[in-house]
Amino acid sequence: MEQSIIDAISLYKCYTLGNTQIPILRGIDLTVKKGEIVALMGPSGSGKSTLLGILGGLDIPTSGRVIMDGIDITKLPESKLAEIRGKKIGFVFQAYNLVSTLTAIENVMLPSYFVKGTKKDPEELLEIVGLSHRRNNKPSEMSGGEQQRVAIARALINNPKILFGDEPTGNLDSKTELKILNLFQRLREDFGSTIFLVTHSSEVAKIADRILYIRDGKLERETNVGKLKN
Amino acid sequence: MLENSKINIFLKYAFTSLLRRKQRTLFSLLAISISVASIVAISLMGVSVEDTLQSSVKYYFGGDLRLDMETVGFRIGKFDFKETEDFIIKLKDAGSIENYTYTLDTIRGTDIQKEGVTQTFLGLRGIEIGNYPLYDEIPVIEPKGVKFNTLIREPYDIAINDILAQNLKLKVGDTLPILSDNGRTEFKVVGIIKEGGGVAEIFGIGLIKFETIMELLKLEEKDASSIFIKTQNDILMYEAERSIKNQLVDRNKFKISVSNYVEQNEATIEILRPVLQFFNLAGIISLLVGAIGIITTMFISMKERKKEIGTMKAIGIKSSQVVNFFLFEAILLGITGSIFGVALGILLSTQLVHIAEGIFNTTLHLVIDTYVLLYGFLVGVFSVFTFQIIPAYIGSQIRPIIVLKDIEGEKPFYRERGFLKIVFISFIIFGGILYLNLRSFLLVLGVFGLIFLMFIFTFIARYTIKLVSRFPTFNLVSLKLGLRSIERNHWTVATALLAISIGLGSVGGVLTTGEGLKDFVSDAFSSFADYDIQINGISDSKISDMEERLLLMEEVKTVYKTIDGFSGINLTLNKINGKPILRYISDLTKEKRIKAEERCINVNMGGRNLEFNPLSSATFKTTQGRLLGKEDIGKNNIIISTQCVDTFGIGVGDTITFQYNDYYFDMKVIGIYMPSFQGGGPPSSNLGIITSVETIDKLRRSSSNKDFNILEINGVKVVDYIKLLPQEHSKSILFLSKTRVNIVGLGNESKYFGPHNNDKIIISKKLAESFGLRIGDSITLEENNYRKTFFIHGIQEGPFNIDSEIIIPYSALNGAFPDIYTYTLNIVAKEGQVPTLTKKVKSMFSPEFYVFESSEILSIVNRLIDQVVIPISLLASFSLFVAIIVISNTMYLSIIDRKREIGIMKAIGASNLTVLKNLAIENLTIGAIGGILSLVVLYVSFFGISVILQIGNTPISSFVLIGIFLLSLVVSVIASIIPAYNVSKIRPLSVLRYE
User: Fold this and answer.
1) CB contact under 8 A, A93 and B403
2) Does B314 contact A56 at a Cβ distance shorter than 8 Å?
3) Using CA atoms, how far apart are residues A51 and A41, in angstroms rounded to an integer?
4) Could you read off the pLDDT of B847-895 as tens digits, one per residue?
5) Chain A contacts of B311, Cβ < 8 Å?
6) With contact defined as beta carbons under 8 Å apart, do B197 and B268 qualify?
7) For residues A211 and A204, what is the distance between their CA atoms, to the nearest angstrom?
8) Minimal Cα–Cα distance from A227 to chain B, Å?
9) Distance CA B305, CA B396 (A)
């Protein structure tokens, strides 16, 4: 039996804008197993980013629980949550979100300064993402694809249990997109990484084991691609 | 290794972040530099002043010890220069003191005719050439390279100080005519020097040979106003001080005040301390204004970096670590800014020293104290660090979800528990910094109070902005957009308004206070100097003639007679309602007793010309009884001020017995008044006792001392008479020069002489022995070319009335000696006729008499006020300069916030001009609001200052009001120049592309 990395139980989320309550998530249950690549798809305003934020420890649900690696992260205080984010989660963003004033290698190493525990070798990571030759370049000196690869390396430095991606290929052309997707696949194959991606792209869906569809704050359906493949 | 790298990362991030946002960083650096510079400059100046005083204290003091006598001609008590000098020479011979010198100070008139010169007085100081000063040298300004000792050679050489040179427009080689009892003497200006002290600050002073000043004052024997003593060390100094006090003051009861340089130094520093504290406060206010700018900048910086902070948190960096990123930035900023600030501060201090030299009329040497520099540097760094703590904390609380969605956290930051803790810590640190600077808890609390007021003000500003943004816009799109954007950035704009209000408000406040002080002084002055021109020293025989001539002049409104002397006569309180004064005082409460004891001697009684210059109820507000009127002329009725009542508890109807010399008289209190300004009543009249001029005249004729010459004894010329005396009578030589005569009147005559007393006198035993005189002998006395022969009626133990050797009844003098008593004529000119009348009067009566204009004093005082107000305004303008930077910053940042909006506007067709027009409207609106708020600050601060200084309500001149409002607009225009440049650089497409 495959170990589940994340168990989300009955997630509800409401945002308050002024005097109005806006429900975003209306009761979501899901599980992500170790070594899986899961894709979350849905139309704009369906709650994808919100769900990702809650699963990734960036936000707290209005009600419900998220069990990550045996710990209910919804009950943790901010400082402990930060530790979880540092040790167990890796994030990759649509806009790469690298620190513009630091070089590639410094960006990769950045999380490792603040989190105790085993760390990967940043040089090795850059090697894996194929950017050793860019180690001393700043983000402004790199292409979009290169920046995203640095971001992926950064996300891996602390040996996270799960890698989250928010539209990781949204800003990239199709050729570069494929490169990134290949990288994700390699990570899962070579290192057993668990990956959860929010995406609009059908190409991304192609590498997923499961595709979750969300609409109006609820999980509409689930496609088990991996099973299909098998 | 990992820890090292962490610091490296922090530093690198901080450094590169600052470099990336160049304009922002520059603004912050400027604000920090100026704040630190002002603190450093002011502290350095304070240190320099203290140091100069310390190192040259003996020079400024005049020696180790100083003996001061009251001015020749104004002395009440006894003083014998010869005896004093003999004693000092004895000390010198014994080796107790090293050297001594003496000076004689006086004020004389001048009738110098030069373009633009209105001053008619100057100070004169007679010095021992070659022996003065005892320490160091007097700096010679002109001619250059000449030593002071070599300047004054001839009897009529004079060395003047730079103030006098300026006031009378004199150069080396010019002629300076001086009026004295000898008539008109022309002096030659041989040098311009730096000499200060006393009257020199106001009128200016000239140094001349001691022999010459004796000549001018018609002194036959040496006399002095100050004696300076140099001792080898402090121990000998204290010893000498003790013996002098013992011998000369206590035993002989000479009225000398003895002081040493050590206590003088301490006294000066005591006075300096609050002044320096005040200036430090000005530096702190600059710091506060700078703080507004820095905090605002950092807040906006946080806002800009929301996504960056969110990312940091998303990758596992804790909030506390996020704070460190920004604190490192603050430290870097603080260090750089403070280094510049210290350098700028050193530069500024050189300028400030020049200004201080001008004000205090002295040479100051600038001391660059490394402690001060280090202190300024640390203040800068710590302050920036402290200012950054709160924004950094708030930034660190940004929720990581921001990196995915643009939704802020739900809880407002100020409700977080940690926030209050952080604010409290910041305040403690900042309070510590303030205390180091101001050294007074009270002032630190005051600054916190100011910060609190600033917060309140920001709220008010914010609501004003909201109000303004609701103004009708008359469908002008630009105006609408401008107002909307101001409203959107209301907090930022509010802080900018705060900065501008403080900056402008403080400058306006200082200037207005200066005007207020001038008004106050002129009101105060006019309430007791109710004349335009005054002529002093007019004797009985001449006064009616002068009065007539003056009344004939068409420019004259009134002329009235008063007694010579500003303060009337000097008395001692003897009894109240028959009870001896000491018994009366012992019945008062303990606190009142001490004050009352001090105040019963040296009481002044002023004489008012009730006929031609009646008391006005506006200046003298009656609280009990009534004011003196024409019916009180010549009577023994007085009015007293409420201060007298406070001290002694006297009421209407009470009788006070006064002692004047050796004569006692009763006065009845008929009214109590409250003076119209603090310290009220006639000048130096601490109890505000006023009676009619005629009464004072009567009183002074009751017992006064005057010098006469003995012309003949028993019909023989006195020089011949002495030759006939046996050798022992050489003591009589003493009386060849002025013999002091006590003139008694007002009923005292009968006490001494019985009913017939026309030519009888009483002489002292000493005088009798010196000339071998007996009852029945005759003495012919002379004064001012009048003479009369008197017969000795009695011989008594002298001296009489302190130091007289002869008693003469007033009735015996009357007629024979008409010029004993002199008067003053006060002239009031018709509206607008003062200058013409002054010229006429001067040409008619000067140089025989001193003609004094009341406006002279006023213009001098006004000048003094300016000298203080201008440097303070300079300090206030530090804040203004920082305020300009803060506003530029704010406007610059609001543009950054709206890059996208402006890009879109341009994309849809708005030209650069349109965008700039919008900006201009926005900035002018901010300027206008700022101007109004500055005026509010001005009113409030001026109200506060006038309450503290108790100078009453002066309306703020409309010039200042309009000036400040316009200045606010100007400042906002200047502040928008750089942002406008940025606007023109924004390319429409660039903002549409995803960053």
Assistant:
1) yes
2) yes
3) 11
4) 678 788 887 777 777 777 776 677 677 767 777 777 777 777 777 766 7
5) 93, 97, 99
6) no
7) 10
8) 31
9) 11
